[in-house]
């Protein structure tokens, strides 16, 4: 039996595709169908159901030797994508990526599968400097535990060929996405079309022994000499060049950013993990801080969960950046405006309102990481050098937001608390309170009858509670709710479904929970000194996401500026969109 392409024979009755629930697994599920009578799909994560007798869907934990042995029965060839695909602590990597890959090869030996395409990674050579020309024989320099696991996989493939005759093509995948996302990916991008062709040739080219190739398209400034792929007849069809203008419109990272220095980019800066429990475990203890994204936000603030997208949005104030992280595919995106962005609130029809330096704007994320802004209303600040800071909508959808002088060292009590209602000609931005230095900690009780507000300046550090007329949107009697936190300065806050107030303890690395009568219930630790704001999210609103602040003198590998998640054992309340 033969395909019409390149005369490559198609001898396989059954191909096993591991990691089928992942992004590349979904691509190859579609493109490998013509090349086997049956495509067996496997992952530990949920997959779409079988589409007929030509597909078999099997949930399998690669760390389970017996399960992998059963998975391999009747398999002729394997495309092995399965495992953890990001940098994580070694204890996590070892199970899926090291034990799992060993189990695949052992099961292939026992069941007579003679060909494997192994998804290795550019992170095997990630600590080489950018611009250094490498081929498949260049010294490996793994950039983390993930890279080490892929280096181990290549050695395992070599061993199983020399000892047992199992042939493998190890593909050091660069950055395989629909389009390159940043400057580094202009060098490392692999289109889905080229990925499919490379995997197909890895399956069907005879006499490969153990061959290592780079998974990259025909990128103009590529770092890798892929002449080793000649044995496969691989000639990439695509290039990152059509995306150059869009990518170069992005703000350039600092010169010392790992994405500008090393071929492995940000992976070289991940860890250490002494104080960070694993993300993916069968069970979690309440209070374990999980790393969601290792970013370098200068001031990560205003996290808001978008239930419709199952995504977390937040801002990096000084960068004027809006960030998004989707749970389903673990993908991160960001967009930048031309001025500082203090906080956001969701619009019911889609998009966001953002409180910036000169007023409140409608925000529209666009192509090229550009955040388009349309000013709805300006603001008359008390003096130059001010901006909006913390804010959110009340339960009825009115937008509340405070202003501050950016130079906090002046301790100037010129901040104002505003309320915005309406749209168009009916839009009103009204001053509701003054004498604030750094207004923060805005939150509303589940019934909307209590409003919380703090002043996080070191000279004040107080949290107040107001009686709130939810019908009229007017705060009344003010009382001291928390005179001083149990650790740190009061920063951003959230409310849970039980009416308790969660507030970040800036400078203490803590997130505190206070009961409605102002008693400290508990404090959860995060592995950075300056947590900034928290928000409930996830499918059941049972995850407490925490953004953080990164100071200029932070160590290169420090987690400051990253986003974390806590499992506090309680659920939150969905944020109200702006409803004028």
Brief summary:
The protein has 580 residues and is of the alpha+beta class. The protein has helices spanning 23-31, 65-72, 90-111, 145-164, 185-188, 192-204, 244-248, 258-261; strands spanning 14-18, 38-43, 55-59, 77-80, 115-121, 167-173, 210-215, 290-293, 300-306, 311-316, 321-326, 332-336, 341-346, 352-356, 359-365, 371-378, 386-393, 399-405, 415-421, 428-436, 439-444, 450-455, 462-469, 474-482, 489-495, 501-506, 510-514, 520-525, 531-537, 543-548, 563-566. Strands 3-2-1-4-5-6-7 form a seven-stranded parallel β-sheet, sandwiched between helices. The protein has a four-stranded antiparallel β-sheet with strand order 8-31-30-29, with no helix packed on it. A four-stranded antiparallel β-sheet has the order 9-10-11-12, with no helix packed on it.
Task: Walk me through this protein's architecture.
There is one protein chain. This protein has about 575 residues and is an alpha+beta fold. The chain folds into two domains: about 15-250, NAD(P)-binding Rossmann-like Domain (Rossmann fold, 3-Layer(aba) Sandwich), CATH 3.40.50; about 275-565, Neuraminidase (6 Propeller). The chain is about 15% helix and about 35% strand. The chain contains eight helices and 31 strands. The strands form seven sheets. Strands 3-2-1-4-5-6-7 form a seven-stranded parallel sheet, sandwiched between helices. Strands 8-31-30-29 form a four-stranded antiparallel sheet, with no helix packed on it. A four-stranded antiparallel sheet has the order 9-10-11-12, with no helix packed on it. Helix 2 (about 65-70) packs parallel to helix 3 (about 90-110) and helix 3 (about 90-110) runs parallel beside helix 4 (about 145-165).
């Amino acid at each position: 039996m033969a395909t019409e392409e390149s005369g490559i024979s198609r001898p396989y009755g059954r191909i096993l595709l591991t990691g089928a629930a992942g992004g590349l697994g979904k691509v190859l599920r579609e493109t490998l169908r013509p090349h086997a009578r049956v495509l067996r799909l496997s992952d530990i994560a949920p997959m779409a159901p079988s589409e007929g007798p030509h597909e078999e869907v099997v949930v399998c934990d690669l760390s389970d030797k017996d399960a992998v042995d059963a998975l391999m029965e009747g398999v002729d060839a394997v495309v092995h994508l399965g495992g953890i695909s990001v940098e994580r602590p070694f204890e996590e990597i070892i199970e899926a990526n090291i034990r799992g890959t060993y189990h695949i090869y052992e099961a292939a030996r026992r069941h007579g599968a003679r060909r494997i395409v192994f998804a290795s990674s550019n992170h095997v050579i990630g600590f080489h400097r950018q611009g250094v020309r490498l081929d498949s024989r260049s010294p490996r320099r793994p950039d983390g535990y993930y890279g080490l696991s892929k280096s181990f996989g290549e050695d395992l493939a070599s061993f199983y060929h020399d000892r047992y005759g199992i042939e493998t093509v190890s593909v050091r995948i660069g950055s395989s996405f629909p389009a390159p996302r940043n400057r580094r990916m202009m060098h490392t991008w692999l289109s889905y079309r080229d990925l499919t062709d490379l995997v197909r040739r890895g399956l069907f080219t005879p006499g490969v022994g153990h061959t290592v190739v780079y998974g990259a398209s025909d990128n103009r400034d590529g770092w890798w000499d892929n002449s080793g792929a000649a044995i496969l007849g691989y000639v990439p069809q695509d290039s990152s060049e059509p995306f150059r203008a869009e990518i170069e419109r992005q703000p350039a990272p600092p010169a010392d950013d790992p994405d500008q220095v090393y071929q492995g980019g940000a992976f070289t800066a991940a860890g250490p993990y002494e104080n960070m429990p694993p993300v993916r475990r069968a069970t979690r203890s309440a209070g374990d801080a999980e790393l969601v994204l290792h970013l370098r936000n200068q001031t990560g603030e205003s996290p808001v969960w978008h239930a419709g997208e199952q995504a977390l949005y937040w801002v990096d104030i000084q960068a004027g950046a809006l960030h998004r992280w989707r749970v389903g595919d673990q993908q991160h995106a960001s967009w930048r405006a031309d001025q500082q962005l203090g906080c956001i609130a969701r619009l019911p029809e889609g998009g966001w309102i953002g409180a910036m330096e000169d007023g409140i704007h409608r925000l529209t994320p666009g192509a090229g990481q550009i955040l388009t802004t349309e000013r709805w209303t300006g603001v008359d600040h008390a003096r130059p050098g001010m901006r909006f800071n913390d804010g959110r909508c009340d339960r009825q959808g009115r937008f509340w937001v405070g202003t501050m002088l950016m130079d906090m060292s002046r301790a100037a009590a010129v901040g104002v608390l505003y309320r915005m209602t309406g749209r168009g000609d009916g839009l009103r931005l009204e001053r509701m309170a003054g004498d604030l230095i750094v207004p923060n900690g805005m939150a509303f009780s589940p019934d909307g009858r209590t409003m919380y507000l703090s002043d996080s300046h070191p000279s004040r550090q107080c949290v107040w509670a107001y009686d709130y007329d939810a019908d009229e949107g007017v705060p009344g009697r003010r009382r001291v709710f928390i005179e001083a936190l149990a650790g740190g300065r009061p920063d951003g806050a959230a409310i849970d479904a039980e009416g308790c107030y969660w507030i970040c303890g800036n400078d203490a690395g803590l997130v505190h929970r206070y009961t409605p009568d102002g008693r400290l219930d508990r404090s959860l630790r995060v592995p950075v000194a300056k947590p900034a704001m928290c928000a409930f999210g996830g499918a059941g609103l049972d995850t407490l996401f925490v953004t953080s602040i990164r100071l200029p003198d932070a160590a290169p590998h420090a987690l400051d500026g990253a986003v974390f998640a806590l499992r506090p054992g309680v659920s939150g309340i969905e944020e109200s969109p702006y409803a004028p």
